Amino acid sequence: MSTSSVLLMTLQVAALLLCWLLQQTVVAKEQYHEFVVQEAAVTRLCRKHSIMTVNGQFPGPALEVSEGDSLIVRVINRGGYNVTVHWHGVRQMRTGWSDGPEYVTQCPIRPGQSFTYRFTVAGQEGTLWWHAHSSWLRATVHGALIIRPRSGVPYPFNAGKPPAREIPILLGEWWDMNPMDVVRTATRTGAAPNISDALTVNGQPGDLYRCSSKDTTTFPVRSGETNLLRFINAALNTELFVSLAGHTMTVVGADASYTKPHATSVLMIAPGQTTDVLVTFDQPPGRYYLAARAYASAQGVPFDNTTSTAIFDYGGGSGSGSPAMPTLPAYNDTGTATAFTTSLRGLRKAELPSRMDENLFFTVGVGLINCSAAGQQSCGGPNNTRFAASINNVSFVLPSTLSILQAARYQGGGGGVFSADFPGTPPVQFDYTAQNVSRALWQPAPGTKVYRLRYGAAVQVVLQGTSILAGENHPIHLHGYDFYILGEGFGNFNAARDTGRLNLEDPPMRNTVGVPVNGWAVIRFVADNPGVWLMHCHLDVHITWGLAMAFLVEDGVGELQSLEAPPPDLPLC
């Protein structure tokens, strides 16, 4: 081929690339929003309350973007508590300063102050959400983040036809007192916090609670139409079974990643997780309950054993009879929960790395701290102890003088804020799911420890639940990353037995994985996003007790593999 021909082909390729880049620039947009964190008066369960909200709304405002759009959100704190906002599931590529967990990537926004979050939502489509990441404020400070395909790009389901309606459905919990007082009392005494008084759908408990019927959430729909329901479990401490009377739900996405379509009559959604389903309203016109109740996997542990309802109405009015009620699984139906989570498959073949640079094994579970060791006079746990939780026996302690990300950037080795010696395997190996684990293993060690990852490292993590105190399904959320869930099972993970059973073909991609009660889950990801990224249980009672750790992912080579500079208005501690 002549030199002129090679030059012509090069110019043609460059022109095509330039056109593509221009198209991306034209299609992508920048949105600006103001979130004012403030108190608002609401009435639930016959009582008036003053709750923390964003812009006076509960749930908070839904943000709707297209893939590739950038968000600029100025958060103004006019409330009485320190606050941060986490954009749950957003990759935050190179923008870790905007991730939001207090004392991990930033110091909190103090009352009267503000901070502007800036990030791009790239390579993700589906349903995510945002919520406060300070203490238990997220009980009422949360909202949906809906990411649609770019203009002209069809959904990869329903033969590309857009749904008639898209309906965000936020599932939550309600306390008949200030949630901040609930967690403060528990922290002071060392006891377990009070359970919630109600479950909610879009902020309302529903027909089965006192003083609630007139405000029950109602979704008007039309006969024959197919709608996309975007479920978000925003509850603090409760995994939920969800069902819609008389209708089949077809799962098409989870945690803003598409899945192979899967028809089901019941969903199990853990706190932090989202699930997108298609529903065709093909039943006789009428009113049908959507119902949600707890999946409570821990034996003997109190939970909110109530049922929240909303109504799908295509009967043209209230009618004379009660809405049809779905049959929900029993609260301890682990079989149904497992059948649902293991049914999910990624829409396309997984892009798994051929090598494995880090092979980590993390135990996750609860425990107890002896009163003498705690140095506390108030120990309201069993037998004069305080409740605790840990990963690999390290009970995570948040810093208070500087965020971990600031310390990592400006003080290198941690400067006394953290240490980079989080163990990659349990310090003591034992029968993790035995019925009677030795009491000598019940007490974790407090610490602020991170695990350092080289940029680009291929990482596998075995998440192993323990039966210490009580085995439980733990929804583990990783900030800054999506990961493949290669498999899950019960008992102790056995590499020789279980590795061959892992799904390397079409595993689902998520940001929050349920580690089965007295069981394990295996995840993989590539550490291609520099920064400090929290991994924690999304049951807030457990992160309060210390079930968390953080990865410190180093910069790679050059600007595009390095964390951006911190914003000038980053809050001070």
UniProtKB/TrEMBL annotation:
Segments traversing the membrane: none
The organism of origin for this protein: Panicum virgatum (Blackwell switchgrass)
One GO term of the biological process aspect: lignin catabolic process
Catalytic activity of the protein: 4 hydroquinone + O2 = 4 benzosemiquinone + 2 H2O
Lineage of the organism: Eukaryota, Viridiplantae, Streptophyta, Embryophyta, Tracheophyta
Free-text cofactor note: Binds 4 Cu cations per monomer.
GO MF term (any one): copper ion binding
One cellular component term from this protein's GO annotations in UniProt: apoplast
UniProt protein name: Laccase
InterPro entries linked to this entry: Cu-oxidase-like_N, Cu-oxidase_2nd, Cu-oxidase_C, Cu-oxidase_fam, Cu_oxidase_CS, Cu_oxidase_Cu_BS, Cupredoxin, CuRO_1_LCC
